[in-house]
Design a protein that fits this description.
The complex is a heterodimer. By secondary structure, chain A is α+β, with helices and mostly antiparallel strands. Chain A has helices spanning 12-18, 32-37, 73-77, 80-85, 87-94, 99-104, 107-111, 118-121, 163-170, 188-191, 272-278, 285-296, 308-326; strands spanning 5-8, 23-26, 45-48, 57-59, 65-68, 172-177, 183-187, 210-216, 224-230, 241-250, 253-262, 269-270. In chain A, the strands form three sheets. In chain A, strands 4-5-8-6-7 form a five-stranded antiparallel sheet. A four-stranded antiparallel sheet of chain A has the order 9-10-11-12, with helices on both faces. Chain A is globular, with a radius of gyration of 19 Å. Classes of the chains: A alpha+beta, B alpha+beta. The complex binds flavin-adenine dinucleotide and iron/sulfur cluster. Chain A: Pfam families: CO_deh_flav_C, FAD_binding_5.
Amino acid sequence: MRPFTYTGTTNRNEALKAFTTTSHYLSGGTNLVDLMKEHVEQPDQLIYVKNLQYNGISKNKDGSYTIGAMRSNADTANHKDIRLYYPLLSMAMLSAATAQIRNMATNGGNLLQRTRCPYFFETSMPCNKREPESGCGALNGVNDQHAIFGYSDNCIATHPSDMCVALAAIGATVEVQKVDGGSRKIDLEDFHRLPGDKPEKDSNLEPGELITHIHLAKPELSNHYAYVKIRERSSYAFALVSVAAGFQIEDEKISKIGLAMGGVAHKPWKLIEAEEFLLGKKPIESNFGKAAELAMKDAKPFEGNRYKVPMGKNAIVRALMQANNIGE
Amino acid sequence: MKTKNATGVGNAIDRVEGHLKVTGEATYASEFKVENKAYGQGINSTIAKGEIIGIDTSEAEKLKGVLKIITYKNAEKLKTFDKERPVLATDSIAPVLQSNKVHYYGEYVGFVVAETFEQAQYAASLVKLKYKEDATARFILGQNKDKAYNPSEESDHKRGNLKKGFSEADAIIEQTYNTPIEHQHPMELHATISSWNNGKVLVYASQQIVEDAVISISGTFQIPKKDVRVVAKYVGGGFGSKLNVERHLIMAVMASKMVGRPVQATVTRSQMFTNTGLRQSNIQVVKLGAKKTGELTGLLHETLAYTSTTQEFQEPCGSMSKMMYNVANAAVSERLVPLNLQQPFSMRAPGEATGSFALECAMDELAWKLKIDPVQFRIKNDTQEDLSQEKPFSSRLLVECLTIGADEFGWNKRQQKPRANKKGNWLIGYGVSAAARAAPFNETHAKVLLNLTNDTVTATLQMDATDIGTGSYTILAQTVSDCFNVPLEQVVVELGDSDFPITPGSGGSWGAASYCNGAKSACDNAIAGLKKNRNVPKDEDVSIAELLKMNQITSYESQSLAKPDSEFEKHSIFSFGANFTEVWVDKDTAMYKIKRMVNVGSAGKILNPKTAYGQVIGGLTMGAGMVIAEQTKVEPNFGNFITRSFADYHVPVNLDMANVDVIFLPEEDKIANQMGIKGIGELGITSVAASIANAIFNATGKRMRDLPITPEKLLMAEVEDGVTV
Ligand SMILES: Cc1cc2nc3c(=O)[nH]c(=O)nc-3n(C[C@H](O)[C@H](O)[C@H](O)COP(=O)(O)OP(=O)(O)OC[C@H]3O[C@@H](n4cnc5c(N)ncnc54)[C@H](O)[C@@H]3O)c2cc1C
Ligand code: SF4
């Protein structure tokens, strides 16, 4: 590993002050340290932020919740209020990685975890995300794990997080501290970005911005929910395709819904057309099937990932069916 | 052998070395306390074929702690191959850094020695190599079938008249089965500490066969064998990857000489993908014909595999097809295609693990076509003679394995028609397969030292055998305890040192049988010698303490050997087994769970049911891994492996796995060897993949002929013709 300096602090302002353009904030380290060992990330300085006081879970006046960015994925998913009011989030988070990794990983780090594209990890391979202008190895290479929506010729990678898929379905905003001391809130939908011609940028964070909180939307999807994650083994594998579904039923019709997919795009993929279609409809399999068709109609798979289209449809229907059955 | 004490052979005792292992006191290769050692790190090529045309070490050399950077330019001259693509064997030389040529992606092109592991790693990343790439590199087996050649005429097997056989058949199936590259990945990384002293080299290493490591090192460096000592006291798993000497070891030995200090080299987990061996990918065609009544009339099994461009290795996929069934007309062959990929070698049950997948799936396909129960189909084609060797089996309890297994499993509840057993979103299927694995027994030497203090005899056994996590220490202690009728506490077993008598090492399922018979012969020899000195009749029951006293000595040493006899040569000697699997497949996600497995084995005398059970469970899990997820993916344009860590090379997790029932049939095969022991380590993995794939067919109606069977493949596969959805 390349030598670097390490700055540990419990003081937010100190952390922000220490930031330079070649620094990285270090939280759980489950992603960053791996990438440093592979020489993919080469920071000169690590600023340890996990000890900053952003690890709470609090209830807001309107009934919504705010979770701290430095809280571990495990402690978030297992918190009693999260289990009660945001069971979809809890379920998605617990499907990720392993118990050991979830104990280390934090919510802020999870938002910013990088793609698992194998070309990104191997420094001798072309990869625009790792090294702009070097080409995209996956485009004409092995692309079975890659995107079917929203990619560009520059990058076809997917965002690997499960947590973020649930957040996209539920609705959330990310609060960040700027280096100059101010703070701002970014809607989750605008937090991650599509690759376009800047695949090296995963998110719309500015350099040095420190994530402090995730504000969850009001808990309105806790009655009918399901996270379906299709993967190559029953745990400790990233999703081939995943679906987060949550809805409410009034007068036998769907009155509120959140639907998002993972493993299909450079960011958590909201299924807006499907959501709109299902609003006001009965929660029955035929409607779910039509919604799935709508959701997948613009998918453009590659040679290696054609399977994601039928798998995606099945996963959507299954998630909605499972969500529907939960309330009964 | 009669079990005289509660800890002797046949008892399910705890491992004698267990405590050392769980407390961290067992010394693995990189854990020996060696003064003043430096650390070495290999540099891997980043092209698959071409030449090194420039090396810039300036930045790396500036780093603190760097002692030496070795490349082909300054490496010691080693023995190199004297012919094109020689066959890789367990005692082959392992030349490295001898030219500027690159043959595959990840090949070692340099070695950095530094004061610390971290410094060596970082320095290795700073050495800049310039290459001239050769665009003729080839990586994909299926695209290079035209380059196939026959590695050895003798391996082709033909009997009867195949054409006639197929013309007599009422039903024929012919299918192609693909298995990917797989990696052994023992838990313990390959590691060595090498040091020179007065022209002799001492090598702590993680090796399965100590003697062959000595031969390989002395051959590579062209030094006498007596100047090489290899110590492998504990080995944290091998699965074939540690049968031969890998090149990090040679580089460490070389570097230690160059820097005049001991050098440790531990490969990284990602180098376990590129530099320590693998199971080659295979394309197998199996054609089977049978009469309506189920008698097989013809069997064809053709395998195409890859080897590297520098050495040759072929896992014998056809080995089980040759001997398994009573089919008069058969042809079995293997062909190789040289590719610019890492050299393949043995991985657990080389040939059987993959070959049985093809054969036993094909048997299931033909049974379904004939509408015969697949258990009955196998029983119908049982044979007590190995038709390929024209020798009787020393013992073969395959029919018993199948019938007892079927009973235990509840096979009679199986629906013959696929997709007939459903529960909610689940499709439930049952599958069966039969297994056979050769039970070799090789010449083995051993020494015992007896010591009498205050009426208590301590017996110390020494042999260069290895314990690769299988339990060799334990079964050998049990054997010695039995021979001298002394409690286990009075037995000391010392293994894994080339200063000890020569054994064939651990591998190929020959370890247990060879080691125990070797140990027994040394013990028996000691008793016989002591009796002879005092004219005690051979069969008189005198305790070992008494014998030493009668001889008026307090210590005694005896060395002897065991080896196959003429009866062994006259027979074909195999272990047999049957696997039954129940799998639940999710109809929409195509994810599946292995719910239950019943494995019945007839593997001779079971020395210790506990360690034997561990072997079989491990084998079944590894076999399940072949189906569930294990595969090393080759990048088609660059030839590197894109699966490069445990995050993407998937092995099964607990949730995937089943309730496993392992049953050993009582058997003592005295033809196999005096103690009646047969191998078990590789029987456990053989045919497991087929039983799962057959269960998946029974559940879904889909024939999955490409391993692994991932959800993406299963979802996209079509239901077979003739199956109603
Ligand atoms: C083998 C393996 C399997 C996995 N499987 C899954 C899976 O199935 N599903 C899944 O969703 N995830 C999976 N993960 C990923 C895991 O969830 C992430 O690694 C983890 O969430 C990252 O959190 P961290 O705190 O460790 O981040 P770190 O590694 O510490 O940081 C990641 C990035 O975020 C930045 N960062 C961290 N905190 C902040 C902050 N507060 N403000 C600004 N920047 C910050 C860092 O600078 C760094 O760039 C897996 C990981 C591994 C290693
Ligand atoms: S898909 Fe993106 S991350 Fe992968 S190689 Fe292409 S540019 Fe790199």
